[in-house]
Amino acid sequence: VFSVVMNMFYSKLIVPLFNKQTPLEDGSLRTKIEAYAKTVGFTLDKIFIIDGSKRSTKANAYFSGFGSEKRITLFDTLVNDLEEDEIVAVLAHEVGHYKKKHIVFNLFASIITTGFTLWLLSLFVSSPLLSQALGVQETSFHIGLIAFGILYSPISEITGLLMNLLSRKFEYQADNYAKKTFGSAPLISSLKKLSSNSLSNLTPHRAYVFFHYSHPTLLQRIQNLKLK
């Protein structure tokens, strides 16, 4: 329930505590966004700009919520750094996530992972053996929690690896959706600018990407977008 509520109302209830969100004003950008949304049969009324530049130069855009609470949030850095067609291409990528039901898949994956973690915690937190292993003779919740944190580290590496594999697959699918419904050229140029602004490593080691990257590298995404 907590995961569903957070997904529904995160942008409406949590984000305003830390950032200012303002509706995207009428103009050519909003017109292009609404025109694209109409071509793909996607109802989009709530478009917001967030002051992400107050903490970082990183540019981003994301969807949140379902049904009447569905909204798209654009970082002000994204709007300032990219051309309008490039912004629409980034938006098309995000629409791809929604159309391919990646948000629902990620929500269920998050619920399953959280449930699995709490189940393991219930097994470990009251174990006298774990308390004794840390040099404490009397079992306590606090020591059990510390022991769980130590033992869960290798397990979290495995669950994280699986989630990253799924996430990279979803990113390719969203890129392909944007390529099909809007075009590959503006998305490629936007990815180049975003990578430059965030000082991304263009040639990370393949093993590091496999274990730690939730997104394909820039070069991998460009190669995929250039495929016919």
Can you describe this structure?
With 228 residues, the chain is of the alpha+beta class. It has a domain at 2-99: 2-Layer Sandwich (Zincin-like). 64% of the residues lie in helices and 7% in strands. It has 10 helices and 4 strands; from the N terminus they run αβαβββαααααααα. The protein has a 4-stranded mixed β-sheet. β3 and β4 (71-75) form a beta hairpin. α2 (28-39) packs parallel to α4. The longest helix has 41 residues, at 141-181. It is globular, with a radius of gyration of 21 Å.
CATH class of the domain at 2-99: Alpha Beta
Range of strand content: 5-15%
CATH topology of the domain at 2-99: Zincin-like
Helix content: 55-70%
Largest sheet: 4 strands, mixed
Order of helices and strands: HEHEEEHHHHHHHH
User: How would you describe the shape?
Assistant: globular
Instruction: State Rg.
Output: 21 Å
* Uncertain residue segments: none
Q: Considering the protein shown, what is the CATH homologous superfamily of the domain at 2-99? A: Metalloproteases ("zincins"), catalytic domain
Provide mean pLDDT, rounded. Answer: 88
Pairing-aware structural class of the strands and helices? alpha+beta
